[in-house]
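EI: anyone free to look at a 176-residue chain?
SC: sure, send it
EI:
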Amino acid sequence: MFKGIVQEIGQLVSLHKIGKIRELEIKTSGIHKHCSIGDSIAIDGVCQTIIKKTTSTFTVQAISETIKLTNFSSYRTGARVNLELPITIQSYIDGHLVQGHVDCTAEILSITASGHSKIISIKFPEQISQYLAFKGSIAVSGVSLTISKLLEDHFMVSLIPYTLKTTNLGLLRVGN
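SC: here you go
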């Protein structure tokens, strides 16, 4: 279980296919030092199990179902990914509870500047419409956000400068 508050942005340093599995090695500035092999970590909101660690990286393996339902299939070496450790009983819970089980990918329709903030419009698949609510919580790339506008086939979220700076959401482009 996670809370959707990104703790670090990591960088994908290698990506290997092993049959239908993809092995991702991610470089961090230290978040992985708080983990052991077998522990969970959220990568762009996707709960993964650490299978290997070095002093500067950790490695996970994604199965075909994960690749199908997430943006992992679009990852390339050098990609910047949001990272979050799981919550503990002692955790202060800000954001919202995020399971790390991704329902789908969606498409960025537009990005509009609003002062120093940005409003992002995201087209979602019809099958998840029943789970969305105006002013409800949603995790986008693992980031806890509030739906600021909800229409039939897309929703909008507003990103403050802090979120744009401390997550990979500031790197989004129309069409992603």
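EI: The chain has a mean pLDDT of 94.
SC: 👍
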